[in-house]
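Task: complex structure prediction.
Instruction: return structure tokens for all chains below.
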Amino acid sequence: MTDEVFGFDEDEELSLLETLDHVLEHGLVIAGEVTIAVADVDLIYLGLNLLLGSVETVNRVLGERERRAELLIGRAGAGGLDEGR
Amino acid sequence: MSLYVYCLSDESDAAAFEGLAGVGGAAVRVLSLGRVAAVVSEFEDESVAVTGENVRAHNRVNSQLLAALTPLPFRFGTRAAASRLAEYVASNEEALVASLARVRGCVEMGVKIRDALEKAKGKRQKAKDESEETAGEDALGGSARGGSGTAFLLAKRREILGDESARLRAEELAAWLASGVAGAARESAVRVNPSDAIVVRAAHLVERARVEEYRGRVRSLSEERRGLQFLTSGPWPPYSFSDIERR
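Output:
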């Protein structure tokens, strides 16, 4: 999947977070048959904190990218940030 | 001994998984269950650790099937005894076959929109409010500081109006996205979160033959509004269009 993600395909962290968002939150479920463990703690219910955690990281990664782009634009002395791609 | 379950399909090909390692490095195989077949591997532990390796293995197996066919993926961490899996498939067969027909020939594409302009506007407004409040307090002198109920109410009013404005803005973005991909996406699953930095999260069910057209539409949208940041991903197995319980 990683090599097929477009947009932020260069960012492995974001790619894994996207995968997490998809596989933890969606898909067929057999009642009572999903048991996952995070840091050795078993979770029968897929806790919301997991997803909140990943969203926060997405924001952090995007924010860092935004700052890097602003720095580059500042150095070039011209506008035209291509947001999001 | 239980099975780790990746996905269901009514057109799976056992040869597609030959030599493929699943969760925990176990060999992946196809288990025929009547009109559908399950893609599984042996699994001995009581729970499935959420690690990058396991998450990637789960998605890798589903993506392997997606390369040629259309899987109905299970959620990460699904494991069941063979008899329980067979019972689940038998008791939900009609719904599962209908779901497979629904996603056949399609992939899932994802779009998340982060509203950088709205975020910056919020920050500026907050700084302005704080500055005005301080100035007001200074002008009124120290006696007014303890009882600035008016200032509190004014700030609350601005907060409520700001929330309403953010909600309208997020809904407008979702409608704009829906209209931009209309025709290229067969179905959509959209969540709008005005209070989040990522205000719109959309999953689109797209026919394989229309993926490039869909990408072009999303690219045009991202160029249309420069203040937005788009996080686009795919093709994915149709995770967001597989849950028969929610239908």
